[in-house]
Write a structure and sequence with these properties.
2 copies of one chain form a homodimer. With 359 residues, chain A is of the alpha/beta class. Chain A folds into 2 domains: 174 residues, Rossmann fold; 169 residues, Up-down Bundle (Dehydroquinate synthase-like, alpha domain). The first copy, chain A, contains 13 helices and 10 strands. The radius of gyration of chain A is 20 Å and the shape is globular. Chains A, B: Keywords: Oxidoreductase.
Chain lengths: 359, 359
């Protein structure tokens, strides 16, 4: 059985194409359902993008904060905020939800679009294909390039129990607007870490056991673009990084990430470390598993003068350490992809603990 | 303005995934609209694929003949055949149209799906965005890999007046089933010519003036896969050729073909030469315009022992020659992509005639 992969319905790519967003949304505004909800990363609150949002009468603009990784509780709160606004206005659903920002902001907008048409809390839907009703129209405008949240069928959320996505065909965006000019302003080291998220993702999927030719083609292209961007600094680096993220996201159709992501999920859950930086922190200790990838990653770090945070786990309690190991081990497909069917004979709790202690 | 590109809704890729077609179609069969129409290239009439078609009660199987390139008249005839069948059965529209074969068969199935919900003749819709009503659900199963008809928003048709596609967002397939096992049986030189259609397409778009980073990424990957398939004969050549076709099709979003396609359209219109072979015939005379591409193309020809047809235009009347030049020159965007804004000062009728006379 091969996954029948749901793709984003419409895509526009080009320098300055953000200016077309208003016209694109106009096609979705109907006389009886015209309100758009914009969820925008609050780093743009005092930036020029703010004045370019195609807001119309009754539209709702919410600045979202993603200093912490998206929580199901935050999704529920945002949905409440949208519902209150809509009750005051038309009493109906909004015509669409537009997410503008990085992976976290896009994930929040996917989750809000889904939860407007599905009852209960976002935490009820963490898992695979639990969503029953199609979401309202939802579109994304990435302003950071990472692992292709813009094309994925998941929205990664941290719930009370677990960090796990809402995986569903209904999660996939109806529209993405890929304007390389919008990622130009991303500060280092954030740009570097989200880029490495993409690069590491490629290393893990290309060296994994799950790969087929579809995902290989996308993974190889994504990796080549990352190498160009971070080792050669081409003039059109923003365009290339945006395409790297897109291709990396597409490559996940028939591949899986590996050891770095599994360990990084543990760090995120226990220490609250952001996904992008978490992957970089972990990857630097994985030369036994991904020797060539780690070597190249270090060249990129040196070139971009990145100092990784160290000694993050020094003060963890035993209970915290064991929780971290638990979270990492739960992600069985990642281990199997990296190490094959016999992964349980290769990786032990002690080996994982050892790796975590170095970080 | 950048094109807002409509993408195929769902895609499955993998060796043997054709076996999933029945389940995929089941999701589209509703109690009140359950009939599927299969348009299958008649080269499969006596092949094993015939017995693997997931036909159910009342489904209609039509063997299509694509010895000639698809004509609008043929589309109208097929639509009539489907309508007659449906009147005898449910009196309603079919649940879907499934095209199985190469680019021509896929194009026929796109056109039939569109014309079941739009009045008049297919010839009325040759052009851009003339289609008013969405098509019925339509899916494609390629059994040849060429230029990515499986992902394009056009269906190339020859009408009474012109060879021109029905270009519309509604043309795009709802589902594609990419099973590399199905292209294994394609005979040489047909496999070579359809592969070269993809390769030449990449040369023209990558060296064109219209390119942006989206199309460049796809074009480069498609070309690298073609080079691997036709210069190194890897074990997984079928998988790679299928991905080359897919990537080549995606690359057209923000690029355009060039001189070879313009001239080949003329050959097709006047001599009825098939698209794939037509491109190879023309490309061999374009070393002034695409020196590196033509060099590599000749290496591929040699390796695969291809003898191109020659002296095709020796017996043409002056009127036929002028018609051929007319057809080629009508395709202005192709010339502009290849030669820039000033293309009219670079290419003349006499130069085109000279090229045609060599073929």
């Amino acid at each position: 059985m091969f996954r029948n992969f749901k793709m984003v319905s419409k895509m526009v790519f080009g320098r300055g194409c953000f200016a077309q967003l208003g016209d694109i949304l106009k096609e979705q505004r109907r006389a009886d359902r015209s309100v758009m909800v914009f969820l925008v990363d609050d780093v743009h609150k005092n930036k020029p993008l703010k004045d370019r949002l195609p807001l119309e009468k009754d539209d709702l603009l919410i600045w979202v904060n993603v200093d912490d990784e998206p929580k199901t509780k935050y999704v529920d709160q945002l949905v409440g905020q949208v519902r209150t606004h809509m009750e005051e206005k038309t009493g109906d659903l909004p015509a669409g939800v537009i997410g503008i920002g990085g992976g976290s902001s896009m994930d929040l907008s996917k989750a809000v679009a889904l939860m407007l048409t599905n009852p209960g809390s976002a935490a009820d839907y963490q898992g695979w294909d639990l969503i029953q009703n199609p979401a309202v129209y939802h579109a994304a405008v990435p302003t950071l390039s990472g692992t292709g949240a813009e094309v994925s069928r998941t929205t990664v959320l941290t719930g009370p129990e677990k960090k796990l996505g809402i995986n569903s065909d209904h999660t996939v965006f109806d529209q993405i607007v890929l304007d390389p000019e919008l990622i130009a302003g991303a500060p280092n080291p954030q740009r570097f870490y989200t880029g490495m998220d993409c690069y590491i993702h490629c290393v893990e999927s290309l060296e994994g056991t799950y790969l087929n030719s579809f995902s290989q083609a996308y993974g190889e292209k994504s990796m080549a673009l990352c190498q160009d961007v971070f080792l050669a600094d081409p003039e059109d680096a923003d365009d290339k990084l945006m395409m790297a993220s897109y291709c990396g996201g597409m490559s996940i159709a028939y591949s899986q990430v590996g050891i770095c992501h599994a360990l990084s999920y543990g760090l995120a859950f226990v220490l609250g470390l952001h996904h992008g930086i978490g992957n970089s922190v972990v990857f630097d200790y994985l030369e036994d598993y991904y020797p060539q990838g780690v070597r190249e990653f270090r060249q990129m770090m040196e070139r971009h003068r990145i100092d990784l945070p160290r000694n993050l786990t020094a003060n963890l309690s035993d209970a915290q350490m064991e929780k971290m190991v638990d979270v990492a081990l739960v992600l069985e497909p990642l281990w199997e992809n990296a190490l094959g069917n016999d992964w349980k004979t290769i990786i032990t709790r002690e080996k994982i603990r050892e790796l975590y202690r170095k970080m």
